[in-house]
Write a structure and sequence with these properties.
Blueprint (H helix, E strand, L loop, with lengths): L1 H17 L2 H9 L1 H13 L3 H38 L4 H30 L4 H22 L5 H20 L4 H12 L5 H25 L3 H13 L7 H24 L2 H22 L3
Helix pairs in contact: 1-5, 2-12, 3-4, 4-5, 4-12, 5-10, 5-11, 6-9, 7-8, 8-11, 9-10
């Protein structure tokens, strides 16, 4: 479940950053139900497990609302500074690392609850999770066009990044879209590498679940196992693959700087307004009783 929580943490943060204001409020207001539904898709929760999640999520979400949403406001303000200025690759890497650090905060906070939940997981539920990972990986590979050549993978990446850029900055002109395409052509898509990393994390997670189900370790040992798993979640331990991961992240930051340079003052104002809206929503939701 920690793998799921880390994935969910990234989904939550990215979703909050990419959703419209009404979607943010609606999603956050129903976070308990949405998170239990999402986890249920992987493990088919028993009534007792669902009750345990309800109890633990209540405390987790109260903590998140009071401590994490105000922190997300700081991320939004940092984003505004980047939009208004001339961001560097270092700036973009710092922003990305900040988001990863906040995802770690979520999974760290949830570790004791995850340990208690994992003590209840059955072999059938582990098998179901493995099957869901396989299904999701097939979808991922299809969307990223991993069965095709590098050009097709770059085209898939171009489509994703254009959609993301237009979300923040508004419609791109034909000339801007063409420039973005050229920027992506000049980089490795990295799709196969990140797919392999995704698969590595899933394998290690399933191995952990099987160990827990087989040995039923005491809670303190299980929490150490979860912390060890989290420590190697974001980046591979293998030096060669670690170097490749760092290079790909650096290239992504370079691309973000180049996309910003393509935008007009009006488009940057569009992005600034989106961030203002999120700041307003996060502030109000963090103050709700």
């Amino acid at each position: 479940m920690r793998s799921l929580v880390r994935q969910l943490a990234v989904v939550v943060i990215a979703g909050l950053l990419l959703a419209g204001c009404s979607a943010v409020r609606l999603g956050y207001g129903n976070a308990d139900s949405l998170m239990r539904w999402w986890i249920d898709q992987y493990v088919d929760l028993s009534p007792d497990q669902d009750l345990l999640l309800r109890e633990r999520l209540a405390g987790f979400l109260a903590w998140h609302r009071k401590t994490q949403l105000p922190d997300y406001v700081l991320v939004m303000r940092q984003g505004q500074q980047l939009v208004d200025g001339r961001p560097t690759v270092g700036d973009m890497l710092k922003l990305s690392e900040g988001i990863i650090r906040r995802a770690r905060n979520l999974s760290d906070r949830a570790t004791p609850d995850i340990a208690d939940f994992l003590a209840t997981v059955s072999p059938a539920q582990i098998a179901r999770m493995a099957g869901r990972f396989t299904e999701k990986n097939i979808d991922y590979a299809k969307e990223a066009k991993l069965a095709e050549d590098e050009n097709a993978q770059r085209q898939a990446r171009y489509k994703r990044l254009l959609e993301r850029a237009e979300y923040w900055f508004g419609d791109f002109s034909d000339a801007q879209a063409a420039s973005l395409r050229q920027l992506i052509i000049g980089q490795s898509a990295g799709s196969q590498f990140w797919y392999e990393e995704r698969s590595r994390r899933q394998r290690e997670w399933l191995d952990l679940l099987r160990l827990v189900e087989r040995e039923r370790p005491p809670r303190d040992k299980l929490m150490r196992l979860l912390h060890d798993y989290a420590a190697r979640f974001d980046l591979p331990a293998d030096p060669a693959r670690l170097s490749q991961a760092v290079a790909l992240r650096h290239a992504a930051a370079e691309l973000a700087v180049a996309i910003h340079a393509l935008t007009t003052p009006d488009q940057r104002a569009h992005a600034r307004q989106k961030l203002d809206d999120l700041i307003h929503d996060f502030t109000e939701m963090s103050q709700a009783d």
